[in-house]
Amino acid sequence: MSTNQSEKVAVEEQQKRGLKQLKDKLKKLKNKLKRILENKLKRKPKTETESGKVTRRKQKQKEEKQLDAGAESDVVTREQQKKKQKEEKKLNKKPRRRVFPIWLRIIVVLILCAVALLVGLMVGYGVIGDGKPSDALEMDTWQHIIDIVKKNK
């Protein structure tokens, strides 16, 4: 045999080994995939949470199936349909997570009211009353106003 032919034979053998390795890997992957699919098929569908309680959605679906089975002959009025839709919305509604909590909103509104009061005092005393706007925030000014009000009574 010449060197060319021996090289060709060596390359062919190497290719055969590579193909065999690829086939083995493919078989392993197929088996692994089969096991995964079998495990998924064996699992029960999740109708209960970890605590053993049936979720609201599943419970509502069961009730609807029972109602549909028992009330096929009954005529459903428009009001009953509306009530049913409202109940479904309530059950399927996700709880809302507020970014700006209500208690913080109340505090912000109170602070804004206080700021508006102070700004109003300063504008009224300084611009309309021809006084210094900063004087509206001094205690002496308010004491003077209280004295004037009490003397008139």
Q: Which key phrases capture this entry?
A:
153 residues; mainly alpha; elongated
Polypeptide structure, described:
With about 150 residues, this protein is mainly alpha-helical. The chain has five helices and no strands.
Strand content: under 5%
Question: In whole angstroms, how far apart are the ends?
Answer: 134 Å
What would you call the shape? elongated
Q: Helicity, in percent?
A: over 70%
Give a short account of the largest sheet: none
Query: So how many helices?
Result: 5
Note poorly predicted spans.
none
The radius of gyration is 41 Å
Query: What class, by secondary structure content?
Result: mainly alpha
Order of H and E elements: HHHHH
Summed over residues and divided by their number, the pLDDT gives a mean of 81
Number of beta strands: 0
In short:
The chain is mainly alpha-helical and 153 residues long. It contains five helices and no strands. Helix content is 73%, strand content 0%.
Write the layout of secondary structure elements.
Layout: H1 3-42, H2 56-70, H3 78-92, H4 102-128, H5 139-152
